[in-house]
Amino acid sequence: MKTLLNLIWLIFSGLWMALGYIFAGLICCVLIITIPWGLACFRIAAYALWPFGRTVVQRHDAGAASGIGNIIWLIFAGIWLTLGHIMLGIGLCVTIIGIPFGIAHFKMVPVSLMPLGREIVSTSAPAAYPHYRW
Questions:
Q1: What is the β-pairing status of strands 118-122 and 54-58?
Q2: pLDDT tens track of the chain, all 134 residues?
Q3: How many domains, in total, are found in the chain?
Q4: SS3 122
Q5: C-beta separation of 57 from 30 below 8 A
Q6: How far is C-alpha 64 from the chain's CA centre?
Q7: Is 54 within the bounds of a domain?
């Protein structure tokens, strides 16, 4: 089921979002000082291509530099990307068929709001949720 959802997502939403994140990543990498945000854009682009079966977890070893970088990202790009994901998620949740894709947009909100200090992992790996108790 994950593969089918990912293929439909790729055609209707994922490819376009990934291209946008790749374009933003290229711009960030051209400007030398913004390379960390460019690399984060490339990670988000890979997640935007194939979101089902993967999730975002916070890295506990991320330091103060990630926090400062996230504040800068939040001001210049994070708010706008997050609003886009929320609006698309609400729009997709209007129809029954679009609900899984709307939820996928909502899953991308934390990583688009503050990408530094986060990691994208597979949901099938038991280490994906080390701090949760099931």
A1: antiparallel
A2: 788 888 888 888 888 888 888 988 898 899 888 898 889 889 999 998 888 888 888 887 778 888 888 888 888 888 888 898 899 899 989 999 889 999 989 988 988 888 888 888 888 765 545 554 44
A3: 1
A4: strand
A5: no
A6: 21
A7: yes
Q: Which residues contact 59 (CB under 8 A, 6 or more apart)?
A: 66, 117, 118, 119
Question: Is residue 20 assigned to a domain?
Answer: yes
Rounded Cα gap, residues 88 and 106, in angstroms:
9
- How far is CA 90 from each of CA 49, 101, 110, rounded to the nearest angstrom? 20, 10, 16
Helices (H), 31-98: 35-49, 64-73, 79-92
Contact 27, 39 (CB under 8 A): no
Contacts of 54 (CB under 8 A, 6+ apart): 47, 120, 121, 122, 123
CA 45 distance to own-chain centroid: 7
Domain, as residue range, for 68: 2-120
Quote the CA–CA distance of 118 and 110 in Å, as a whole number: 9
